[in-house]
Every structure is written in structure tokens, then in C-alpha cells.
Amino acid sequence: MHIVRLEVNIPVITTFTDIPLSGRIAYAGLDNRMAGATAAYLIGQWLAHPEGNVLVTMSNERFRGEEEREISFRDELRRRYPKLRLVDASGGHGVDMQTEERVRRAVGRRKKIVAVYSMGGGNLAILRALQSIGQTPQCFIGHDLDRDNVQLLRDGKLSAVLHHDLRQDMRTACHHIMHFHKLLPASAVGPSSSVVVVTPVNIPQYVEQRFGKPYP
Fold first, then answer.
1. How far apart are CA 88 and CA 106, in angstroms?
2. DSSP 8-state secondary structure symbol assigned to residue 63
3. Interstrand relation of 196-198 and 160-163 (parallel, antiparallel or unpaired)
4. Where in the chain are the domains?
5. Predicted confidence band at 1 (pLDDT cuts at 50, 70, 90)?
6. How many CA atoms within 13 Å lie on the side-chain side of 92?
7. What are the TM regions of this chain, as residue ranges (predicted)?
8. Pure H helices in 108-183
């Protein structure tokens, strides 16, 4: 797929997930491969004995960003922690009911889950499904600081959230557009946001302000 807009001198930037062969002039977003590798490292470090089953979930296997996270996570886990095995419950599309059912079916009652890496959404549903079959993972890594994830961090249900600053990504996208139109030198184009590991004790202030006080 090639972006026609470039042929009429309209620059196109991809964000959130990249489409490398589209003809876009740049990608301004999270390095998803780095995010997946970071999640694997955190889980291995979090577990006193890194062995057992790790539940992984993607909202949609066709979402390139999540696919890159999964590939990198799997590779890093295999390289660093070969005794950790993956249990895949992907495909819930971020819908709670579908996600919950997929987790129950994938895990069953015989597989003990020591950690969870959720590459998409539906973390409340994942936790409900695990709780319903008597599972409490030692470590749960999620993505993005939405309202649910912030509350789950505050409650100690999520160990960490991999976050990136969308404001910085939008600035970078604007820089690329300005550079395309020769309004900004290449040296002035800022980088995309880095992976930030957010725990219950370092939730960014602007996120706290956006969502207000913790739930009672």
C-alpha cells in the first residue's frame, strides 16, 4: 500500500504503529520492539525464580505494533529466561467479555501463571478471568496509562505499565512535517518518545491530574 498523498506533496506520518512500506516520510511513535524486550527483562527480574508459565495477550494479532512487541518479547524471553513458557490468549480485540473467555480457555485450571504481559487492553478482564480460576500472577506488565491501568497500578494489581509520551510523539510528527516543507532543519527534528517504566510510585503528575483522585 502506497500513500497517494505524497504524490501531491502532502507529507504523511505514521503514529502508534508503523507502516514502513506505505511511503510515509517518518514514524513518530513508540519503538514496539524495545517495549517487548523491556517487558521480558522486567518479568525475568521480577520473579524470584524465572520459570513457569507467562500469559501473553494481544488485542489483535494483525495490529503491527502489538505483533512487534510479541516477537521481541518472545525472543528476549527465550534468550534470557529459557525456563519461562508462553501461554497465548490473544485475539480479544480489547473487548472485556471476549478477552475474559480467551484467558479462561487458554489457562484452564492446570496451568499455573507466574506472570502476565498484556500488549493491548482488557486488563480488568484478564484479572477477572485469572481470579475466577484461582490464579494470582506474581508480575503483571501492561501498556498505556489509561484510567483503568492507572487505578490498577494504584491498587497494586499491575506491577508496571510501559508508557510513552504521546505529546512528544505529536511534537515529533509536527517537526517531520515542518522539515518536509523546509521550515525546520533535520537536526532540529526531535526524537520519538522512549519506553518509560511506570510503577505505582512514579505515575506522571499530568496523568494523575487528568484522572483526578484515586477511586474510593
1. 7
2. -
3. antiparallel
4. 32-158
5. very low
6. 29
7. none
8. 123-132, 147-154, 166-180
Residue 130 dihedral angles phi and psi, to the nearest 5°: -65, -40
Asked if 59 contacts 119 with a C-beta cutoff of 8 angstroms, the reply is yes
Give Cβ neighbours of residue 57 (< 8 Å, ≥ 6 apart).
Answer: 88, 89, 90, 92, 99, 102, 103, 116, 117, 118, 119, 120, 122, 126
Beta carbons of 39 and 73 less than 8 angstroms apart: yes
Q: Which three cell numbers stand for residue 199?
A: 510503577
How far is 40 from 47, CA to CA, in rounded Å? 11
Reduce the DSSP state of residue 113 to 3 states and report it.
Answer: strand
User: Over 90: is that where the pLDDT of 95 sits?
Assistant: no
pLDDT tens by residue, 35-84: 999 999 999 999 999 999 999 999 876 778 899 999 999 999 999 999 99
Would you say 55 and 39 are in contact if contact means Cβ atoms under 8 Å apart?
Answer: no
Cβ pair 34, 164 in contact under 8 A: no
CA angle in degrees (0–180, nearest 5) for 92-93-98: 35
Whether residue 192 contacts residue 173, with contact meaning beta carbons closer than 8 Å, is answered with: no
Residue among 82, 63, 73 nearest 36 (CA): 73
Which CATH fold topology does 32-158 show? Answer: Rossmann fold (3.40.50)
| Distance from C-alpha of 104 to C-alpha of 92, rounded to nearest angstrom | 12
Closest by CA position to 63, among listed 2, 5, 8, 119: 119
- Treating both helix axes as pointing N-terminal to C-terminal, what angle do 147-154 and 123-132 enclose, rounded to 10 degrees? 50
Cell of 136: 494470582
